[in-house]
Design a protein that fits this description.
Chain B: Pfam families: BPD_transp_1, OppC_N. The complex is a heterodimer of chains A (328) and B (603). Chain A is mostly helical and 328 residues long. Chain A contains 13 helices and no strands. The longest helix of chain A has 39 residues. In chain B, the strands form four sheets. In chain B, strands 4, 5, 6, 7, 8, 9, 10 and 11 form an eight-stranded antiparallel sheet that branches. In chain B, strands 17-3-20-19-18 form a five-stranded antiparallel sheet, with helices on one face. Chain B has a five-stranded antiparallel sheet with strand order 12-16-15-14-13, with helices on both faces. In chain B, β9 and β10 form a beta hairpin. The chains are: A mainly alpha (328), B alpha+beta (603).
Chain lengths: 328, 603
């Protein structure tokens, strides 16, 4: 087991290396970068140096005067030491900005994640138990609508109903106008109110796949021989479902859920951008659209690492939960 | 399952297979009775549906899948046929005419001196300022820019300004005049005597030999000179009836003089003009063959057009003046085409503005749904219904092409990896891992902004978008294909192909891949929905499909303007439902297909 984990981690490191190299190459190829915009701005000031002079100077300042390969290894050398440089757009160290914004994303993620589980698993099981009934169809349609709903469209409808017509929540932002004057509890409630719509959006658009997954697995378990045996023994239906079937359904569900755990830190780029919640998704969107290379590199590497970690966790969990599975 | 008398039917039908089909076919030409004897017993014959028929039957039993299929067919008709049937073009902008009250002319009651300069004479602004000073202090002469000007009052607020050509000055000392002649001028005795006599008599002018000399007095110094008219200063405005007529200074002077003095007629250059006064304004005309010909209009008002392309005729001006004098707020005039135009007059202090309702061409933006535009028009004045149709084409086309690219790459690489195993598998799967780990949305956003800054043509941009999305989406397919092939490879039929010496590509693509096709079809159908979602999200963010091309996502992006989001639901709600319906339908079909392909899932 340990050997397997070590091997997987080492492979992941190699993959991360190549992923970051590809991303670095692409981002260095952007023609109008942050630096060029800045140089043009500075060159247009009265009595300024020429554009090319500014460009050379700024490139040297930002450490972009080396070639792509050399630049990548410079970046890598400092990244390995945990130094991701200063964000150009936010003007503070990348990791500091990251630490500031990640928790908003995390809270959004955790709450919608818990809601998803609470909604999806019971409904999925219900749907499987009453296969091809009306309930099953209703739940299936609901799940598929959730999967098919464009997040930006659903978020806009929520905004239209709850922010504009009902006036319950603010359209944008994380805090209200009078945030500064509130006491601690009031501040918490204010932020919580601003998180309601993003969380609703995230939950609805991602609950469907887990529900479908639960249903499929539950069906598979319900069709297996041991359930038939249990029923034949005359066990009550609730015992069959709750004790025998449910426990066995949990195996694949736990691996799936375990695999999504690192994703709680990934942030939801579109939802955060739509609601202007200053989480990692919105922040990286801002950084990306302004060509902030250090932040972007950090974010992409971080995301790639999260994906790898998610896969690793779900593979390990699979082996842990189901003793029949041997890894290696 | 048993069947009788259906041998021939089954043989004709490709969709059904009959066990032991071969003999039946051979005996087709034989006698019926012989065939019966040779054939298997009907009881032993088992009718087996072909696998595809079986799948199809299971598929149509699924209500959701049928609904999904109908939606997709509907969407295809809507997008591809609708675009042809629609009377409008994808980027046709609808213009409408709307009456807008626009400023037409401005009218001011003149209370300042207006100057008419004699042709070819120089009359600088500095002198105009001096004129006003001289008028205010009652002087009849002033000096400006080294020249002496004489100011002759011809009537109330009517002055003639003349430049004095100085001949001589005379200084009176103890009753005797000392005349000094200006350099370069000669003064005859007659003029000298006349000058002295005039000083004595305190006259301001005298005439010698038909030349009128003017004397101006400054303290004890008298100047003698000949006057030359430079300009006329008056409060009245004279407009000619004919745009080509240029009113001469003499005409203006005589006309105003006559008006002030209340005369009925005056004569200029041999023509007799008549004045028809009415309050502070008057019409000046002359008679030609007994007919009255209007020549000019005299008034207090300055009527100036606001647009440079407008010529205001005197009739209009006098109408407006009359209306202002009468305190009316609107005038009606028939224009060249015989339409009655109503002009509104608005007063602001001493300034009047004449407004006319002019037909202005406007782009019809955010028109509510109507008969001609079933879903109204968008912010560019384009028909939303038509945009939705063309947007559907783009979205569906992108979906299909990306899925084809993804499936192709995934099948080729996954197939190779699965079949060869060992280091090939290892290498390909690591590449898959790398592509799998690249966060696709941020990467597409970055690539989108690269295309933005390179100003890629929107048409080319769509192809790039397809390629990028295709390249980022294949690892999932490759993984699935590889996994399936790894397990299929170990089965007997593969050993058989090996034994028969079938070539490797043939083994992969003819014998392995077809066994993966059910899963591929399901994956591709579900993937289609996902791709349409991604594409619309990108277009919504403004980095996917770009204007002028429509896509459902970029139609919805109008909601970034809160005003549009709140007030014009018809702009973005239908597009959202189009996306939802299409993706939902693909998911229904994919789901139905999976159930149909997978016998374990059957009821």
């Amino acid at each position: 087991m340990w050997k397997y984990i070590v091997k997987r981690v080492l492979t992941s490191v190699v993959i991360l290396f190549f992923v970051s190299m590809i991303i670095y190459t692409i981002i260095r190829c952007i023609p109008t970068s942050f630096i060029e915009t800045l140089a043009r701005e500075k060159a247009s000031l009265p009595g300024a140096k020429s554009y090319t002079e500014w460009l050379d100077q700024l490139k040297a300042t930002y450490g972009m005067d080396s070639g792509i390969i050399q630049g990548f290894f410079q970046w890598l050398a400092s990244a390995v030491r945990g130094e991701f440089g200063d964000s150009w757009y936010f003007n503070i160290p990348v990791t500091e900005k990251f630490a500031n914004v990640i928790w908003d994303s995390f809270y959004l993620g955790v709450v919608s994640f818990v809601l998803q589980i609470v909604i999806a698993i019971p409904l999925g099981i219900l749907s499987a138990r009453k296969q091809y009934s009306r309930t099953d169809y209703a739940i299936t349609v609901f799940a598929l609508i959730g999967i098919s709903l464009p997040g930006f469209f659903f978020a806009t409808i929520l905004k239209l109903i709850f922010s504009i017509h009902l006036g319950w929540f603010d359209l944008y932002g994380k805090v209200g106008r009078y945030y500064g004057q509130l006491d601690a509890w009031g501040k918490f409630l204010d932020v919580a109110a601003h998180f309601v719509l993003p969380i609703a959006t995230l939950t609805i658009i991602s609950v469907g796949s887990l529900m479908r997954y639960t249903r499929t697995n539950m069906l598979e378990v319900l069709n297996s021989d041991f359930i038939r045996t249990a029923r034949a023994k005359g066990l009550s239906e609730s015992t069959v479902i709750n004790k025998h079937a449910f426990r066995n359904t949990l195996i694949p569900i736990v691996t799936i859920i375990g695999g999504t755990l690192p994703g709680l830190f990934a942030g939801a780029m579109i939802t955060e951008t739509l609601f202007q919640i200053p989480g990692i998704g919105y922040t990286s969107y801002l950084a990306m659209t302004s060509g902030d290379i250090p932040f972007f590199m950090f974010y992409m590497t971080f995301m790639a690492a999260l994906t790898l970690m998610g896969n690793l966790i779900s593979d390990i969990l699979y082996a842990v939960v189901d003793p029949r599975v041997r890894v290696g | 399952m048993e069947n009788k008398n259906e041998n021939n039917k089954q043989n004709q039908s490709n969709a059904s297979l009959v066990q032991n089909n071969q003999p039946a076919q051979n005996e087709k030409t034989m006698n019926q009775s012989v065939e019966r004897k040779m054939a298997l017993d009907d009881d032993q014959r088992v009718k087996v549906l072909s696998p595809s028929m079986l799948v199809f039957k299971r598929f149509i039993r699924n209500k959701l899948a049928i609904i999904g299929s109908f939606i997709i067919v509907g969407m295809f008709l809507f997008a591809f046929v609708g675009g042809i049937v629609s009377p409008y073009n994808e980027s046709q902008v609808f213009m409408g005419y709307e009456a807008m009250s626009k400023d037409y002319a401005s009218v001011t009651r003149n209370k300042e001196f207006r100057y008419t300069t004699v042709d070819g004479k120089n009359f600088p602004s500095a002198v105009k300022a001096e004129v006003i000073l001289a008028v205010n202090s009652g002087k009849s002469e002033f000096t400006s820019m080294g020249n002496v000007y004489a100011l002759t009052k011809e009537g109330e607020n009517l002055y003639r300004i003349s430049l004095m050509d100085k001949y001589a000055t005379a200084t009176i000392i103890r009753g005797t005049a000392d005349i000094s002649v200006v350099d370069g001028k000669t003064l005859s005795e007659a003029v000298k005597n006349g000058f002295l006599a005039a000083i004595e008599a305190k006259e301001t002018s005298f005439t010698v030999d038909g030349v009128t000399y003017q004397i101006s007095n400054q303290g004890k110094e008298y100047s003698l000179g000949v006057l030359d008219d430079v300009a006329l200063a008056s409060h009245k405005i004279l407009d000619a009836y004919n745009a080509a007529t240029k009113l001469s200074l003499e005409f203006k002077l005589q006309a105003e003089k006559a008006f002030i003095e209340g005369k009925n007629s005056f004569e200029v250059e041999g023509v007799t003009y008549y004045i028809d006064s009415e309050g502070s304004s008057a019409t000046i005309y002359y008679n030609e063959n007994g007919n009255q010909v209007n020549y000019a209009q005299l008034s207090d008002f300055v009527v100036a057009p606001i647009g440079s392309d407008v010529f205001l005729d005197v009739e209009f001006k006098s109408l407006v003046q009359q209306a202002i004098n009468d305190g009316e707020t609107s005038v009606t005039q028939t224009d060249a085409e015989g339409n009655e135009v109503v002009y509104k007059i608005e007063r602001k202090n001493e300034q009047y503005t004449v407004k006319a309702d002019t037909e202005t061409q406007l782009i019809q933006i955010y028109q509510s749904p109507s008969k001609s535009h079933w879903l109204g028009t968008d912010g560019n004045g384009m028909d939303i219904m038509t945009r939705l149709m063309y947007g559907g084409r783009i979205s569906l086309m992108i979906g299909f092409i990306v899925v084809i690219i993804q499936t192709f790459l995934g099948v080729v690489l996954g197939g190779i990896a699965g079949y060869f195993g060992k280091w090939v598998d290892n290498l390909i799967m690591r590449i898959v891992d790398i592509f799998y780990c690249i966060p696709s949305l941020p990467l597409i956003i970055i690539l989108g902004s690269i295309m933005d800054s390179l100003k890629v043509n929107p048409q080319v941009r769509i192809y790039f978008l397809m390629i990028i999305m295709g390249l980022l989406g294949w690892p999932g397919v490759a993984r699935m294909v590889r996994g399936q092939i790894l397990s299929l490879r170990e089965q007997e039929f593969m050993t058989a192909t090996e034994a028969m010496g079938i070539s490797i590509p043939r083994r992969i693509f003819r014998h392995l891949i077809p066994n993966v096709i059910p899963q591929l079809i399901v994956m591709a159908t579900m993937g289609l929905g996902g791709i349409i979602l991604t594409e619309s999200s990108l277009s919504f963010l403004g980095i996917g499909v770009k204007f002028p091309f429509a896509s459902w996502g970029n139609i919805i992006s109008a909601v970034s303007n809160v005003h549009v989001m709140t007030n014009y639901w018809f702009v973005w709600i239908p597009a959202g439902f189009c996306i939802l319906l299409t993706v939902l339908a693909f998911n229904f079909i994919g789901d139905g297909l999976r159930d149909a392909f997978d016998p374990k899932m059957k009821r």
